[in-house]
Design brief:
Gyrase A, domain 2; alpha+beta; 22 strands; Multifunctional fusion protein; elongated; seven-stranded antiparallel β-sheet; protein transport; 5 domains
């Protein structure tokens, strides 16, 4: 055959590249397995063995391997396989705007910002675009006619390129560019911090146009430490401190207010506010010394509008900040400081740090020495001169680290930060300051945490599902196609090898959905072989010799294979563009798998088969049991279409009825909220756990927050979802929710369980094994992205079918069947949401499943349409109805084999692939079944009826002429 040498050369080159890419993964795994065996489970000994074994090298001539280098280059595993944390950081764009306006106090600006904050909670647009809209509205309402270039808005030294006559449109462009640059700066700072932490194979990416940064850190165990590290702005600020005599009269007044309006504030009227403050126990420059358990109540009181409105003029702009941590000897309490603020809340000294390092004070306590930049040093000198004999507070992200008295002016810009640090805390602070400050505060708007134990279990279940699925495909192919099936298996193995090698070479991350993508791409890869072999069988039954039959089989199948794979590839591309996290991994795996299957199953298999045939050897394409299956099978599909329409109409109406009346059970990535999977050392009844947790999650107004508790997989695991404090994205809010979760589940945990052991389940038989947090804004973005993905997929498939088959009737029939499949799956998830013993949530994974089903279903449809096109050229005497019936019936073998093999593979993953994949695979199971049905009775039938309305037999002739003309042009 032509091109045999070229195809072989490409395969050899690809093979060498993949070997080179996969060797580091094999070598690092080999070293780690040896260390595990030698250490016998002792982590300290394991680390020593790794250090010893890492000195060895493996010289292969073309590549020299040693452990540390191999570890850096090994295939990346996602956190669902390795454990760790995946977060979406959002840079505070209000802070950025405040900085760009030089902290202007203009009332129009402040009102516009406040309105934008509210709008943003329910908007999927960018913050800056919403701000410009709100600014215009406030400007019109107040009739102020302010321009964006006004000195009180953006026309200040911070934006020197803006002049007094710069147009609003130009100012918008400049501001957007500056915000994009600031996000870039934040990205570099975050990446530097992570590098300083020594995390292996982190993945840090910007999300264009959103002010967000995606960070994935597999293998990380100290989650709270990571969250603090990522969100700390490193914006070191120095403030004047107001002391107790100045603040105490307000506290006394507030105590009276509470006795009268406590219910309105959200606390009992008999709350003794002054007692909570414990002012008599103060030994610092703070204004209160509050028990840790009472800090939430004090925050609620001080931040309530009633309390703020009661403030006298001298503390109108005062900021109340907590100390960094309890002082030695005062471990149960936290000091509250009163910081002298102003309307803009801009600190007197707000400068970056040039250098920072760990040091020790006269008493041997750990401190951080730092040197300010030139501007900071100048402002610091002025401030210390002004406050000799008075305290000043050093804060980082609105937390006071120290507030000492100033003994004398400090002209050098060199100062010391103390805060009862541990060595690790001091090192983290040095790393944060050394990496540079963020241009604005950052908050975690989405987070996913997977414990190491769950990661190990995911790898095991993923590998088992892969092995079982692979064996199913191997047995089925050889059983059905005999010798040709063996060549299909060889091609599939090569395809798998190429897939993993290419993923490693492009630095793709392998996730649990990615493993599902590998298995699914294998199932879809056999489709190409099935198409070729079924067509070869047809040619053999026509009396052609084996070589000629294979030649015709490959030639006639090529267009159908290309069309089917391109539509599936379109789906994978849409998944990649609109998906996030693991869904991107699934899309990458599926996309590479589709491309590689085209090469291995079409070109490479052809080379191998014809190499055998040219040597005069035969190659069976059936077995005695399968030779005559589906041969001469003819079904009147078009004649039975009205019955199918009735069945589909009933199923569709029932599905839509459930969708609009019962709705869905949405996951946290669609609704927003926090979700935790908790494991216990004994079986737990979800109803009892739910009753216990309901008492814990009560918001500040005394209202019950939503709490949903379900058994997750085995009876010793629960999935707990709540929207408690979902609008708060701070680490403190996360810790509060985890504390309440622990307290609520304490009756079901071991007696010696602690909050620390509960939060890190790695070494325990109980605790949080995974968690997900999604803010409401991100949830709206995910829902919008999912809707766009579905629409764009349908539009893309419609246009591609129109391009290939030249008639809108084919495109309409195809899209009608896809809509039918989508509605059926949605209906099943609505009807069965409280019935199935596994998660039936509508989330990102579900959207990926829907799109995958669309790709699979259209693949089937294209095969039949391709056969219709072929028969139009060859069997011009057929009526339109006969044309469709013959085309569908002649492809029954291919449709059944692909659907049955794919169904078995998905069923294997569904059973042994782990709880996290069960809902995803259930959607695929429904999709494969109804996708096959809709290909026969919806896509083909709708296309037939539309063509019939355009003139019946005359339409057939015109269609044949159009296809014939297209063929001649090609």
């Amino acid at each position: 055959m032509q091109g045999k040498g070229f195809i072989t050369l490409i395969a050899v080159i690809l093979g060498l590249i993949c070997i080179n890419e996969l060797l580091p993964t094999w070598y690092s795994g080999k070293i780690e397995r040896q260390a595990t065996e030698l250490s016998a489970g002792d982590p300290v000994k394991y680390q020593k063995e790794i250090e010893r074994l890492s000195k060895d090298t493996l010289d292969l001539g073309f590549n020299k391997l040693y452990y540390t280098k191999a570890k850096e280059k090994e295939m990346k595993l996602g956190l669902d396989l390795k454990g760790g944390i995946n977060v979406l950081l959002e840079i505070n764009q209000r802070d950025l705007i405040n900085n760009l306006t030089n902290y202007s106090e203009n009332p129009v600006l402040i009102e516009a910002l406040n309105r934008t904050d509210e709008v943003q909670k329910k908007s999927t647009g960018s913050y800056i675009d919403n701000f410009f809209v709100q600014f215009d509205e406030v400007n019109k309402e107040k009739n102020t006619n302010l321009k964006l270039a006004d000195p009180e808005i953006f026309g200040n030294p911070n934006l020197s390129e803006i002049r007094f006559n710069t147009s609003d449109e130009e100012v918008k462009r400049i501001v957007k560019n500056r915000i994009e640059l600031s996000t870039g700066t934040a990205y570099e700072v975050i990446r530097t911090r992570i590098d300083k932490m020594g995390v292996t194979q982190p993945n840090v990416q910007r999300v264009p146009g959103t002010g967000r940064i995606s960070v994935e850190m597999p293998g990380v165990k100290d989650i709270d430490r990571v969250k603090k590290m990522l969100q700390t702005s490193a914006k070191l600020q120095f403030w004047e401190v107001q002391q107790a005599p100045e603040i105490f009269p307000y506290f006394e007044q507030l105590s009276t207010v509470i006795s009268l309006k406590g219910d309105s504030i959200g606390v009992a009227k008999n709350t003794d506010f002054l007692k909570l403050l414990q002012i008599n126990t103060l030994a610092t420059t703070g204004v209160a010394n509050v028990k840790l358990s009472d800090t939430a109540t004090v925050n609620k009181i001080l931040n309530h509008p009633i309390a703020k409105n009661a403030r006298p003029a001298n503390i109108k702009h005062t900021q109340f900040m907590w100390g960094y941590k309890p002082d030695v000897g005062n471990e149960g309490n936290l000091v509250l400081y009163a910081i002298r603020g102003n309307a803009s809340q801009k600190a007197p000294v707000d400068g970056a740090v040039e250098s920072a390092n760990i040091s020790y004070d006269q008493l041997g306590r750990v401190v951080v020495d730092m040197q300010m930049d030139s501007k900071g040093a100048k402002d610091w000198k002025t401030m210390t001169e002004k406050n000799v004999g008075k305290p000043v507070a050093v804060s980082l992200d609105n937390v006071v680290y120290t507030a000492p008295n100033v003994n004398e002016a400090i002209p050098s810009g060199r100062t010391q930060i103390s805060g009862n640090f541990s060595q690790e805390e001091a090192q983290d602070l040095v790393n944060v300051l050394g990496a540079g400050k963020l241009p604005a505060g950052a908050k975690i708007v989405q987070a996913e945490v997977v414990g190491p134990s769950l990661g190990a279990e995911s790898i095991e279940s993923g590998m088992w599902s892969f092995v079982i699925a692979f064996l199913i495909i191997v047995v089925y192919l050889i059983f059905y196609y005999g010798g040709a099936g063996i060549y299909a298996v060889i091609a599939m193995l090569i395809n798998l090898f190429f897939l993993m090698g290419i993923m490693d070479s492009v630095d793709a991350t392998l996730t649990l959905p990615g493993i599902a993508g590998v298995v699914l791409s294998m199932a879809m890869a056999i489709d190409a072989n099935v198409i070729v072999y079924e067509r070869t069988k047809e040619e053999l039954f026509l009396g052609k010799n084996i070589k000629e039959a294979y030649k015709e089989g490959f030639n006639f199948s090529l267009s159908a294979i290309i069309d089917g794979n391109i539509t599936s590839l379109l789906t994978a591309i849409v998944l990649y563009v609109f998906g996030t996290g693991p869904i991107k991994g699934f899309a990458v795996t599926l996309g590479i798998g589709i491309v590689m299957s085209m090469f291995t199953c079409v070109l490479l298999t052809r080379v191998m088969i014809f190499s055998r045939l040219e040597k005069g050897k035969g190659l069976s394409v059936w077995t005695p049991l399968t030779k005559n299956l589906f041969r001469n099978t003819w079904i009147d599909f078009i004649g039975k279409r009205k019955y199918a329409y009735i069945i589909s109409a009933v199923i569709t109406l029932v599905s839509l009825g459930s969708i609009f009346t019962q709705g869905f059970k949405f996951g946290v990535d669609f609704n927003g909220g926090r979700s935790y999977v908790v494991r216990f050392d004994q079986s737990v009844q979800s109803a009892k756990a739910d009753e216990s947790l309901q008492k814990m999650f009560v918001n500040k107004d005394g209202d019950q927050s939503a709490v949903d508790v379900k058994t997750f997989g085995s009876d010793n695991q629960l999935k707990v979802t709540t929207d408690y404090k979902i609008d708060e994205e701070s680490v403190e809010a996360d810790m509060e929710v985890e504390q309440k979760l622990f307290e609520g589940l304490k009756p079901f945990l071991p007696k010696d369980a602690t909050i620390d052991s509960f939060k890190s389940s790695g070494d325990e038989a109980y605790g949080i094994i995974s968690s997900v947090k999604v803010g409401p804004t991100v949830a709206d973005d995910i829902k919008t992205g999912g809707a766009f993905a579905l629409i764009i997929s349908l539009v893309g498939i419609f246009l591609y079918i129109l391009l290939r088959f030249k008639r809108w009737q084919f495109s309409t029939g195809a899209v009608a069947s896809l809509l039918h499949d989508a509605i059926v799956i949605l209906g099943a998830y609505s009807i069965l949401r409280n019935v199935m013993p596994f998660s039936m949530e509508i989330n990102q994974d579900f959207i990926a499943a829907i799109l995958t089903v669309l790709g699979y279903s259209i693949n089937d449809t294209v095969i039949i349409f391709d056969r219709i096109r072929e028969y139009l050229r060859e069997k011009k005497s057929l009526t339109l109805e006969s044309l469709f019936n013959d085309s569908i019936s002649s492809t029954l073998g291919r449709t059944f084999n692909t659907a049955f093999a794919t169904f078995l593979v998905i069923l294997a993953i569904f059973i042994v692939g782990g709880e996290n994949l069960r809902g995803f695979m259930f959607a695929l199971l429904i999709g494969v079944g109804f996708g096959t049905y809709s290909t026969w009775f919806i896509a083909s039938a709708v296309t037939y009826d539309l063509l019939k309305k355009k003139g019946g037999e005359e339409a057939t002739k015109k269609l044949a002429q159009k296809f014939e003309k297209t063929k001649e042009e090609q």
